[in-house]
Specification:
Largest sheet: 8 strands, mixed
CATH class: Alpha Beta
Number of helices: 7
Number of strands: 16
Strand content: 25-35%
Order of helices and strands: EHEEEHEEHHEHEEEEHHEEEEE
Bound molecules: zinc ion
Shape: globular
CATH superfamily: Ribonuclease Z/Hydroxyacylglutathione hydrolase-like
Structural class: alpha+beta
CATH topology: Metallo-beta-lactamase, Chain A
Helix content: 10-25%
Distance between the termini: 48 Å
Length: 282
């Protein structure tokens, strides 16, 4: 059976737009989804990210959480007949407030998988409010429980396999320890790319403030350089058929361009096709 990725809807968040797209629509509020991804068809279910703890915790960043009953992680997994205890691995793109809030809903024999650099970042005091205390404390509990945590060293290994057809790679963007999850589907490679991309339209399809050809725009929330962010985005556009960020609908990619958008599952029906912006013939 081929690997499939199901989209889990953990609820929305409201935040200021320039946090998502650098310098764009400053002061305007924007509502975005928070997704998780369930990988099925392998030896056991694998989950990518767990969303935010509750609506109240988003206020610590001046953001608004919109998580309702149907968005509870147990209810999202139940749509695919999966219970928390069935999940073998939880892979974390990174440990920000909206990505690792529900690991404590899973038993300790479900292993959380983290790039070691990212756990270091979460306790470095840099970007401190984005790594909330209860989430990180729970991960420290796991650190002291046999097999509850698995570390990757992606800066040094370049990639580590989780099961045949699923592996993690360093994102080299967003946070120092962010990682991407690559899934081999029947229709090519999908990359679950965390917060390396926030917004396909404003960063890639019609990137704001960019004059040069094929120049992506960066998010308003990153730890490294703009050059590094752009390179990480270009690498994604060059190497993968599907890109699945956490706060925007997945995209179908061809020749480094977004040609379609999906919802629900990957591979899956195209919900919206995006016209190619080709060069003008003379
Ligand atoms: Zn996020």
């Amino acid at each position: 059976m081929a690997l499939e990725i199901k989209i889990l809807d953990y609820g929305d968040i409201e935040l200021e737009n320039s946090f998502l797209v650098l310098g764009h629509n400053c002061g305007r509020t924007r509502r975005v989804p928070v997704y998780g991804f369930l990988i099925l068809g392998g030896p056991w279910p694998i989950l990518v990210d767990t969303g935010y703890r509750d609506n109240a915790i988003m206020e610590s960043l001046g953001m608004r959480g919109l998580q309702f009953h149907e968005n509870m992680i147990e209810n999202q997994l139940a749509r695919f007949d999966v219970k928390p205890g069935d999940v073998r691995y939880i892979l974390h793109t990174h440990l920000h407030i909206d990505h690792a809030g529900k690991d404590d809903h899973f038993p300790m024999n479900t292993t959380s998988v983290i790039n070691r650099r990212e756990l270091e970042c979460s306790v470095s005091g840099l970007m401190h409010p984005q790594y909330p205390k209860p989430d990180i404390q729970h991960l420290i509990e796991r650190l002291h429980t046999k097999d509850a945590l698995r570390f990757l060293d992606l800066e040094l290994t370049d990639g580590e396999e989780i099961c045949p057809g699923v592996w993690c790679e360093p994102a080299n963007a967003h946070t120092e320890g962010s990682m991407n999850v690559v899934v081999e589907t029947a229709d090519g490679l999908a990359n679950i790319c965390g917060d390396v991309i926030y917004d396909f339209q404003d960063q890639i399809i019609d990137p704001v403030y960019q004059v040069s050809d094929l120049e992506p725009h960066v998010t308003g929330n990153h730890a490294g350089s703009k050059r590094q962010e752009k390179a990480a985005i270009k690498k994604l556009l060059n190497n993968y058929r599907y890109l699945c960020p956490i706060h925007d609908k997945p995209a179908l990619i061809e020749n480094q361009k977004v040609i379609g958008r999906l919802e629900g599952q990957i591979p899956g029906p195209i919900s919206q096709s995006v016209p190619k912006r080709d060069w003008f013939p003379v």
